[in-house]
Amino acid sequence: WVLISNLKLLKNRKIWVALGIAFLLFMPHLYWQYQNGFPSVVYHLIDRSKGFTPFSLVEYWFNQLIVFNPVLFVLSLMMLFTYKTESLFDRALKFIIAGFIIFFFFSAFKSHVEPQWTVVAALPIIILMFHYAKMSVKIRKTLNFAVFPLILVVLLVNIEFITSIFHIPNGFGGYKKMMHEISTKAGDRPVVFQNGFQNASEYNFYTQKETSVLNMFYYRQTQYNLLHLEDQFYDRPVLLQIIWKERSTDSVINGKKTLYFTEVQHFVPVSNLHIEYKMSKTAFSMDEQVTIPVTICNSAPFDVDFKHDEFPITCFAIYQHKNEKWYSQCQFEDPIEVIKSGEQKQVNISFKIDSKDFNTFHLGFAFGTPFTLPGFNSKFVKCNLVR
User: Fold this and answer.
1) What is the number of alpha carbons within 13 Å of residue 129 lying toward its C-beta?
2) For labeling, which of 78, 226, 276, 281 is most exposed (least CB within 10 Å)?
3) At CA 201, angle to CA 197 and CA 204, rounded to 5?
4) What's phi and psi for 180, nearest 5 deg?
5) Where residue 295 falls among pLDDT bands split at 50, 70, 90?
6) 8 A C-beta contact, residue 60 and residue 105
7) CA distance 23 to 193
8) For the chain, what percentages of helix, strand and coil (3-state, to nearest 5) are there?
9) Which residues pair with 35 in a beta bridge?
10) Angle of CA points 76, 151, 62, to nearest 5°
11) pTM strictly above 0.85
């Protein structure tokens, strides 16, 4: 946004030196993204994309009013149109404010925008608002009216978050008690949660005990998909969160939130099994029987027994069309017994196309167990339904 505010900067040799240094400093992160399949890009463009809803636009503007203070935000928008900048620096600040607000406004057409993403515009707003307030006594009085009560509100909110002195339901309370209750039930065993990152993070924070997360394809991938902390729990007894109440042996309740658990004696994670394949075609008819050669790679530091007595592993075809996800079971033409650590095994899998009558859908493959839904074990390929 700074460059767009003053294109003459492109003629300045120093700006290119600065960009070059910034790019070199950013290279390790880009390389990490490349090594891990660009998870940040996949997350923002695919995993969290829910399509357009009018509510996302209303929610976006409402969140901006809350984040920046309603009066301050309205004044900021007025300032963008009425304040005549006195320097290129002030002009750059205006472009930063407008750039972030407009960019994330258009992002709201694709999915929910987190309120804090535009907070980067707060510092330019404060700097320009100082200059803007010098123009009028009325503006200064308006700022005094808007800012000082906000400071009191922020102080009271933080006191409530820390102490719960006012006993206001806020969605954050009770987690300490809940996590210690889970810890009591788990004893010395690690706790493995399903879907998300919040529960495992809170559990580790409050108890300092071992934990991890298994994210299913119905949810999305998080940092735990990259950390693979669950590999440390292989063949150990764990307390495993499951989504099926009828299969659970215990539960923990916090307000309206209930977590179901079951005890597993010999835990087997399957997140380090990767399915590689190439589609010879991407157009299928409904209920068509398909056989595809795949390569299953085991990058886990242990052998994986597909016929495990407690944790037998099943392969699934997983489908996605916009926000809708579903799956169907696959069959191996030749049964798989064990895939050793570091081994690659080539097999054929057979399944029936279940597109749910969508003209287009994304197809992938994943492994599940009696305790877990299919996870993230392969890429997705866009396919078409032939009628």
Assistant:
1) 24
2) 281
3) 145
4) -70, -30
5) very high
6) yes
7) 38
8) 45, 25, 35
9) none
10) 45
11) no
